[in-house]
Write a structure and sequence with these properties.
200 residues; mainly alpha
Length: 200
């Protein structure tokens, strides 16, 4: 059990200055923050090992490795993506998200988006996957508006609403039909966001 008694300082004898109990909330909050800050470096190290393994092993052996460590091929590839961003993560380990799934979303950001996120102060261990996706969507929308203004283009926003239980295969089919319908319009640029909850 962890002792919540603080240690007295200042040279006075222990019996003259009894230890003062710490606020348990403050104590555990500090310990948890400290633990969270150690998670991102562990994920980065894991990503490096996975990237090395993929470079050294053939496809069958790499799949076998995934089964041995309990990670799917998709998860292994996500760690490789994390490793690809190792240079911009360097020196910022204490600010990186503690969850590897969120770290993966951060790794997918462009360099400009990552620097904007870091400069905003929102890059922190508690950052959630939803927050990263929301940031990326807003950043991209702002860039689209800026580009339209600078290039004297017009933007038309279209929202496609479908049942929440729609499969990814059907969603991809809907996207493909939209692109197919406008494939003969070379001066039209289509950008489709990730699926979001419809709020009316």
């Amino acid at each position: 059990m962890i002792n919540l008694q603080s240690t007295a300082t200042g040279g006075a004898p222990d019996d003259a200055c009894p230890a003062k109990p710490l606020d348990p909330v403050v104590f555990y909050a500090a310990q948890i923050r400290s633990a969270l800050h150690r998670l991102a470096p562990a994920h980065i190290e894991t990503a490096e090992l996975v990237a090395q393994a993929r470079a050294a092993l053939d496809r069958a052996s790499f799949r076998k490795l995934g089964k041995m460590v309990g990670l799917s091929a998709s998860t292994l590839n996500k760690f490789v993506t994390i490793h690809s961003s190792r240079d911009r993560f360097e020196g910022r380990e204490e600010s990186l998200p503690s969850a590897w799934t969120v770290l993966y979303q951060v790794a997918k950001l462009s360099d400009a988006q990552f620097e904007t996120l870091a400069a905003s102060g929102d890059l922190r261990p508690e950052l959630s996957e939803k927050q990263v996706k929301t940031f990326a969507a807003r950043n991209e929308a702002a860039n689209d508006i800026s580009q339209c203004a600078s290039n004297e283009l017009s933007c038309l926003s279209v929202r496609v609403v479908f049942p929440a239980l729609t499969s990814l295969a059907r969603e991809d089919s809907i996207r493909q039909r939209i692109f197919t319908a406008l494939e003969n319009e070379p001066d039209i640029n289509i950008r489709v966001s990730e699926r979001k909850k419809f709020k009316g």
